[in-house]
């Protein structure tokens, strides 16, 4: 595990194409991890340092991904190096991220000319629990619901269930709305991106780390729908918490960005 979470962070890249994803055609979503690069760009070559396979999810649960984001039971298994789910090579699972069935972050109610009608849920919300190869708990990321319904936020806990970080974007309008930003830079994938900053859970001051949805390239954004995330570790972050932050990025995708592909 140490080799995977070493350095300043990591890049999480979706391997599964979602080009034909619709309604009941919902595949398990697999990922790869590449080395951290603060100026990541889609045209740079990067080696694969880990593979993440989604297992333990049912066809019915995947079908509900659009109607109730984050609802399904699932498990993500992390292995070192390249791993082919169609031809397993016996590589051991180093750690995992898993959840049981929960309520979704919201529920789809209908559609109008102005967009979707969704009702937020306030209890039994999505989470991912990070465990080592022996099943011991390393940490947990929990989706949160409060009075500011338009601002997605997550609580990141250590192995003893102490809240260490609050993961949330910058806000405006007294914390009621996400603050938009545009940091266009032709050298990296952060143009018009929305970083989720790791914050002190009490003061909500940034602590130096973040999870950022990157521009993955025209083909990935428009056709195959493969998402890419940059995970930057905060200072004084141990290996268990670094593995948990990988689960945090997966939960951000599961709850927010995955359902936007439908």
Largest sheet report: 12 strands, antiparallel, barrel
CATH architecture: Alpha-Beta Barrel
The low-confidence runs, each spanning 5 or more residues with pLDDT under 50, are: none
Number of domains: 1
Return the average pLDDT rounded to an integer.
89
- Rg over CA atoms: 17 Å
Structural class: mainly beta
Strand percent estimate: 25-35%
Distance between the termini: 33 Å
* Number of E-type strands: 16
Q: Please estimate the helix content.
A: 10-25%
Main attributes?
262 residues, mainly beta, Tubby Protein, Chain A, twelve-stranded antiparallel beta barrel, two-stranded antiparallel ribbon, 13% helix
Kindly describe this structure.
This protein is mainly beta and 262 residues long. The protein has a single domain (2-261), classed as Tubby Protein, Chain A. It is built from 4 helices and 16 strands. It has helices at 2-5, 59-63, 218-224, 239-257, and strands spanning 9-14, 31-35, 50-55, 74-80, 95-99, 106-112, 115-120, 127-132, 137-144, 153-158, 163-168, 171-172, 177-178, 195-199, 206-214, 228-232. The strands form 3 sheets. A 12-stranded antiparallel barrel has the order 1-2-3-4-5-8-9-10-11-14-15-16. The chain has a two-stranded antiparallel sheet with strand order 6-7.
């Amino acid at each position: 595990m140490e080799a995977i979470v070493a350095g300043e962070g990591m890049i999480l890249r979706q391997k599964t194409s979602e080009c034909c994803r619709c309604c009941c055609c919902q595949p398990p979503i697999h990922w790869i991890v590449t080395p951290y690069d603060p100026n990541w760009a889609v045209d740079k070559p990067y080696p694969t340092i880990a593979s993440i396979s989604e297992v333990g999810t049912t066809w019915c649960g995947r079908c509900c991904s659009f109607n109730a984001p984050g609802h399904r039971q699932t498990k993500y298994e992390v292995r070192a190096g390249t791993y082919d789910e169609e031809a397993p090579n016996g590589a051991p699972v180093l750690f995992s991220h898993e959840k049981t069935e929960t309520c979704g972050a919201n529920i789809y109610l209908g559609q109008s000319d102005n967009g979707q009608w969704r009702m937020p849920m306030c209890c039994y919300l999505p989470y991912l629990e990070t465990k080592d190869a022996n099943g011991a708990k390393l940490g947990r990321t929990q989706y949160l619901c409060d009075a500011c319904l338009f601002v997605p936020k997550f609580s990141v806990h250590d192995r003893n269930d102490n809240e260490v970080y609050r993961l949330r974007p910058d806000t405006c309008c007294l914390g009621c709305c996400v603050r938009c930003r545009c940091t266009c830079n032709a050298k990296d994938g952060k143009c018009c991106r929305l970083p989720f900053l790791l914050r002190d859970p009490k003061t909500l001051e940034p602590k130096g780390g973040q999870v950022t949805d990157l521009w993955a390239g025209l083909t990935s954004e428009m056709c195959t729908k493969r998402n890419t995330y940059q995970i930057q570790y905060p200072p004084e972050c141990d290996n268990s918490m670094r593995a948990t932050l990988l689960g945090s990025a997966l939960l951000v995708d599961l709850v927010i960005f995955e359902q936007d592909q439908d």
